[in-house]
Amino acid sequence: VLNAMQVFNAIQPPYTATVMIELYNTSGEFHVQVWYRNDTLTEPYQLTLPGQIMTFYIQLYLQTFKVGFQL
Questions:
Q1: Are 36 and 47 in contact (CB under 8 A)?
Q2: Disulfide engineering: 37 pairs with which of 9, 26, 44, 67, CB 3.0-4.6 Å?
Q3: Can you tell me the distance from the alpha carbon of 36 to that of 44, in angstroms, rounded to the nearest whole number?
Q4: End-to-end Cα distance, the chain
Q5: Neighbours of 21 (CB within 10 A)
Q6: Tens of pLDDT, residues 1-56
Q7: How confident is the model at residue 71 (pLDDT cuts 50, 70, 90)?
């Protein structure tokens, strides 16, 4: 998932790492936030997709996945 979103840093995540994808609906427009937590000692931190802000339209999120999954 991290590689498909183009935010993977080539370091294997810990076994218990978590990627949280939150979907929001504000006035009929869908927005996404992506969070990553790699241990239980720290709070999750928000990921920023390349060229995007931290909260972005669902269409941009899906487009990023399409690019990330191309072989």
A1: yes
A2: 44
A3: 5
A4: 15
A5: 12
A6: 787 777 888 888 888 899 998 888 888 888 888 899 988 888 998 888 777 666 66
A7: very low
- Give the pair of three-digit tokens for residue 29: 């427009």
Q: Any alpha helices (H) in the chain, and if so which ranges? A: 58-69
Q: What angle do CA 52, 32, 64 make, to 5 degrees?
A: 50
Q: What is the pTM of this model?
A: 0.69
Count CA atoms within 13 Å of residue 17 on its CB side: 13
Q: Kindly give, in sequence order, each residue whose CB lies less than 8 Å from that of residue 3, ignoring residues fewer than 6 positions away.
A: 68
User: 32-48: string of b/e by CB count within 10 Å (b at 16+)?
Assistant: bbbebbeeeeeeeeebe
